């Protein structure tokens, strides 16, 4: 091993000779020999020195050539450690280092991507280069999506993502990279079971939690490719029995959010086709996992974008409500659907149970008792959710059909200043629904919350018009005290 003075002297001579060669035509220069000499003389070169010699103005030998040379030596691990520390170091934002640090990132990243995605793999050295390049990119992605700010600060992440987005390579290479990293995120292990997902479906469709901001920033970059390619990747993971639903639903949320209005219809059309395909396969082949995936996806789309997809009850009726279009028209498929939904009851959010109990599907001959049993069990479970259901009265949810119906009736009543025609229609054509579900929900008073003036006026108008049973009105007045 040579000392510091000898190292400095050697580097100075190497750089000087490199400049001389570039300025003087006709002088030969053996870059391979220079690289071997460099690797022999310099035991642990700094990242900045590697950059100067391989990527910056000197370019004595190639970056990937250096990686292949040191890949099997102890120097390689030192290089990777330096690279990871550098990529996620806060010192990149110091005024005197930011420009150079950004330039180093901009030079290193394309070389790594070329090693990973433009590699012919015609010999063992190139195969090793591809493996190493993918390992480095994987390490970077895992650090980018880490919830630990020590692993990756907000400013560092933004700089690194900006560099990745602006990398000067063909879109085809960037798309391969983005797709592979997105697959890496979707393949991460999750401790959440399908019961957890069913129970927390509304949470996953709500505002993104702060601790997931790192994941969101990274995914938003990696999904910037054609919708069909993203969907193919999602479909692949939907077939995985250990699918990471948390990541997958987050991808869909961000994907929908990032799509322009013109592309939204295409996006949700693709998702509708996927959902229908999963549901059809699940029912016909008795695959509960496919039915589960279809329902979870449909509910998520209904919650994040009902205007572009559909409200849940509308989607549900479209898929199961009509004899000619229902996907469960045979006794076998209908029985399997009812069995699966029954097994989910303990974990179902009330808004979805309410839809199933209110909007009956097309029922094949002889199957009515099976669905009645399911509805009765659902109503028992709904009653256990009373506190949640009451709170939802003052947090309107378009996926709860009864509360949504009440809101529409109240708006009409406030506008017309008289009982809406919708009340008369219910009394004529949906009398059971009106008395057993609509009125109890309208009259229920949440604990500690006053009923709105509009609701109070509507209730009194219904009572005066004889459209409110006296026993229900009596209980309602007692509860107001």
Notes on the structure:
- There is one protein chain.
- With 481 residues, the chain is an all-alpha fold.
- The protein has helices at 4-23, 31-41, 47-54, 63-70, 74-87, 95-117, 124-144, 154-165, 171-186, 194-199, 201-204, 213-222, 227-238, 245-258, 261-284, 288-304, 312-320, 331-344, 350-358, 368-384, 386-392, 401-416, 421-429, 431-443, 453-464, 470-480.
- Helix 6 (95-117) crosses helix 8 and helix 13 packs parallel to helix 15.
- The model has no long low-confidence stretch (mean pLDDT 83).
How is the secondary structure organized here?
Elements: H1 4-23, H2 31-41, H3 47-54, H4 63-70, H5 74-87, H6 95-117, H7 124-144, H8 154-165, H9 171-186, H10 194-199, H11 201-204, H12 213-222, H13 227-238, H14 245-258, H15 261-284, H16 288-304, H17 312-320, H18 331-344, H19 350-358, H20 368-384, H21 386-392, H22 401-416, H23 421-429, H24 431-443, H25 453-464, H26 470-480
Primary descriptors:
481 residues; mainly alpha; 70% helix; 0% strand
